[in-house]
Design brief:
The structure is a single chain. This protein is mainly α. It has one domain. The chain is built from ten helices and no strands. The longest helix is centred in the first third of the chain and has 48 residues. The N terminus is likely disordered.
């Protein structure tokens, strides 16, 4: 039987003498509605919420529980999902930006070569007379242009496999540059300069418009196909009529319509390149992206050249 001296103190003794040697029980703290928290031991809140140092427990203080942040309130599995989502978003954005830079770098090389050929065919008289005297080379370049264009557009494997894609793109650029230079040799230098200037303004305006606007032209691909078919029909009719008798206003009308339609094509292909619309080009299709923009810009130049050439005559 345990003696009374070794028995634990009663509840009243522990309540009135908290520092009793054999005190093994502390009453539960009461909740304070005014402060919204449990009161700490004596001196706890007067010391800023930190237990005071005492001689009986030197250097010891209880662990302060910090309030969890908002991100810590998210379960670990959900946090990993969010991190993966933002990481994928950043990676896709960086890939798209690298793709856009690659396409515009290739496009800049193509346009620099094409307009150099146009300048040579326009300013160097022996070259200009040569291409006018031998139109068969023009028709041969047209055939090469058509065949290579069909290969790059219809076949995915050649336009994605390096270095065949760049080789085919180079042949295509050479053929279209010769065609553009041959057509430019029939016009005055002033008309060529005017067409180049207007083309540059149109291309810059279209690029800024596509990067700023919320209008999605990729959702109107059906209307653009109809516009392309109508342009082809008008071109055939114009070619037939002009082969019998030259009609100035008909030629001007066809050239103006062609410039407008290819400007819309340029907007459409630029938005495909950006990739934040309903339709987008895969980052692997950098040759297709450069090819589309290049064809649009050169055709805009040729149609504007016909308008400016007719206006300066």
């Amino acid at each position: 039987m345990t003696s009374k001296a070794n028995s634990p103190p009663s509840y009243e003794e522990a309540l009135h003498h908290p520092k009793a040697e054999d005190c093994s029980y502390q009453p539960p703290p009461s909740y304070s509605p005014s402060t919204g928290m449990y009161p700490g031991p004596p001196g706890y809140w007067s010391q800023g919420g930190v237990f005071p140092q005492t001689s009986e427990s030197p250097g010891l203080s209880p662990t302060v529980t910090t309030i969890p942040t908002l991100s810590a309130a998210v379960p670990a599995a959900h946090t990993g999902d969010m991190e993966a989502f933002f990481r994928n978003q950043w990676e896709s954005t960086s890939v798209r930006h690298a793709f856009i830079r690659k396409v515009y770098l290739i496009l800049a090389v193509q346009l620099a070569f094409t307009f150099t050929v146009v300048a040579v065919f326009t300013f160097v008289d022996p070259v200009r007379l040569f291409v006018i005297r031998y139109p068969g080379i023009y028709w041969a370049s047209l055939a090469v242009y058509f065949v290579v264009y069909c290969v790059l557009i219809c076949l995915k494997e050649p336009r994605r496999r390096f270095p065949w894609n760049l080789l085919l793109l180079g042949i295509f650029t050479l053929a279209l540059s010769y065609m553009a230079g041959t057509i430019s040799s029939y016009y005055e230098t002033k008309a060529v300069f005017i067409a180049m200037g207007i083309t540059v303004v149109v291309c810059v305006a279209v690029t800024v418009f596509c990067f700023q606007t919320k209008v999605d032209l990729t959702s109107c691909s059906g209307l653009l196909c109809i516009a392309g078919v109508l342009l082809m029909i008008i071109g055939i009719v114009t070619a037939v009529v002009l082969s019998f008798q030259y009609v100035h206003w008909l030629h001007m009308l066809y050239a103006a319509i062609g410039a407008v339609v290819y400007t819309l094509f340029l907007v459409y292909n630029t938005q495909l390149l950006i990739g934040n619309r309903e339709l987008a080009i895969s980052p692997e299709e950098y040759v297709f992206g450069a090819l589309s923009l290049y064809v649009d810009i050169v055709h805009i130049f040729l149609f504007i050249l016909q308008v400016s050439g007719s206006a300066t005559e």
